[in-house]
Amino acid sequence: MKDSEIILGVLGGIGRRLWVGRALQEAFFGLCVLLFFLIAFRLAGAVQTSGIPATGIPVWLPVGAAITAFVVYLAWRLSRRVTLSQAAAQADARAALRDELKSAYWFVSNSEHSPFIDTQVARAAATAGRLDPRTVVPGRPPRSLWAAVALGVMFAFVTWLAPQMSPYWDASAAPAPSQAQQQDLRALLQDMPRDARIETLDQALETLQRSDATAEQKRRAMEDMRDIAEQTNMEAAAAREGLARLAEVMKANPKLEKVAEALQAGNNKEAMELLEEVRRDAAAQQDNTGGEQFPDAAVATQHQGNLAEQLDQAGRDLSGTPNINAPALDNLMKTLDQAAREMDAQNRVNQVQRRARENMVATAQRSAAPHNEFGSNRQDVANPEPSPDSGNADMQGASTFRRDSANREEDADGAREGSRTGSASGESPSMALTGKATQRLEAQLKLEAIQRQDEKGGDDDKDGKGWIYTGSQQQASALDFEDVRARGGFDREAAGQHDRIPVRQKQVVKNYFLNLHESEKK
Amino acid sequence: MNTVVDRQIQAFREQFVSVREEISRIIVGNEDIVSGVMTCLLARGHVLLEGIPGVGKTKLVQTMADVLHLKFSRIQFTPDLMPGDIIGTNIVREDESGRKNFEFQQGPIFANMVLADEINRATPKTQSALLEAMQENSVSAAGRTHALDQPFFVLATQNPIEMEGTYPLPEAQMDRFFFKLRLDFPDVEQLHLIIDRTTREKEPAVRRVLQQGQILEMRETARAIPVARPVQEYAIKITLATHPESAQGHEMTKKYVRFGSSPRGSQALILGAKVHALMNDRVHVSCEDVRAVTLPALRHRILLNFEAEAGRVDADTILQRILDWVPEPKE
Question: Which ipTM value was assigned to this complex?
Fold first, then answer.
């Protein structure tokens, strides 16, 4: 075998091993970059929900483009082969050959010949023959492998093992308010009697469930839900009051005393059971009497009006008579059953509204993970001003704002009155303009007056004429002084004075300091 | 395996080592200086030795002349030295018939080894006469050109501290020297050796180990060493890095250097590297060889500006930075 062939063969082997090592290094480096971004986005939780501000482009678009470009770059890097001259340089460096193979390869590839060149190539071939490519380029794992393993472990830790790492973990780890969740909420309403408010509530939930709903539509849906909840709460409160009044009336009847106690305790179920017993007793007594009505028995009348009125009517039916007939009890039970349904409706509506609001808050927190960007998209969230001072503190995640507000109150010094409301960004100016936090900025403009000394020394200043505002006098002196200065030639005004200072200026200065002195005395 | 070339290379190395060992019997330490002087001799260059008085500059040259079987002459440069005192002059001579004619009387420059002691003490006119001979390997007198015998090797010395009454060599003339070598003050051990050798009854004697013909052969061998293009490119990059106006100029060069090395600098780098490779029993020149000769080959070829003088930045510092900065060829 010729010397040149030996050299080229060895360099080829070294070049292949170098290429494999470089490919592994670059591949694992690419994996490191990918894992790094995955960890970063996992921690930020911003991939699915955030958009680029002012453009509306989803974040995954530029991220995907960057990853694609990086992969293309890696592929291009990997496609480049290791040249033999590079292999020769690497072999020289790794085996401390002092450029022997590099020089020999250059002479071989340029077909130069001389006795000394041939000798050099022969020596280089002998050296190359002694070289083992596996020794020159050992097959050890690339350094980027360990970095990739470390990042992989970190990724696994972030993904599965450490939910507490992110302050927004609960929000980000929880799935977005998916259709399934909204369906669950709607299922709460399914077995309820369909009236206008339930229909409105269902429509609001449907709006929140739609992915193409705009922020404004969602905001209106949330407002509708809040209105319905308030209405339901109001009616439920009225029903509770009616029940309380009914219980008071029923206490007067010994047969219904226990029922009244149960109602007052809020135990409608027990009250219904007790009432059922009373009704059975009443029916038995009625059978024993041959179907005659008690002369003073409560008359069963059909209850009309809203629930509160019905309860009041039931109370009136029961008042003033110890005997109760079965139809009256039936009516009472129907009314109580309706009241129980009203309570149940209130519970469900409140539950639906609360959970829908929680979902929206979680979404808002994910989309506005950095605090200082909260204000930019606060219009998208259900509660744009999550301040405890505005009365909307009973929401998930509001503890941060409450704490912030409390801290503000602790060290409030009046100088930063504009940021007491606990804006999400902490240091931002006040956003909420309602509530107790907003204070009126008053300009402290005060003028002090001095008492002009009367020459007679008498107290003839009852009408206040003796009081002048020092500010006015000082201002007049200052204006005089400025006036004289503005003339620019006051030195010409008093010719013949040895100090060449105009008399008028002297008078002005004297007045100025006199007034100043008197105001200080005051 | 080319046995002729191998024998040449082996002979080169053995002769080089023998000269160095023989010189080291007299000269204490300074192995690098001895190698540098030998490199200049074998690369057909001339050397400028710089050092404070008494460090052995003249002794080194005298010892070298003793070791090499060459014709040696010494010129002590003084302010009143004239060019004719170096080159020679025409004198009138009367023959047997009574006719008078001019005859060229050769000066001390007609030798194989010329020691130009304290070259900066002569006037520029006299200096230039010597420098012309160094460049052309011939001298001109009375309209006739006289070739100098080969090898022609000038060793000039200069004292860097006594500058009063001296005529420092212009940079253009410094460029004619292949290497500029600096002799440092010997350390304690070396001083002990110097005292031991020079204060006894008999100083050690040296023998002549090289003949004139052998030196010429060694010169041919050195020239025949091949240099691969990547290594040559590395030497060129180093040279270009000394140029402040070059795009490849080093940052320090741009700050402190007024003029960079001439092409003679690149030639000196390659030739010096060839000799260095042969000294190390190699047939090829490596970047390491180039680095080894960079300081002596380029330190006198770069002209520093006022800022460097004021900041006490010398050429060696700049060159060292350049060596650290210029990467070796990767392919």
Answer: 0.84
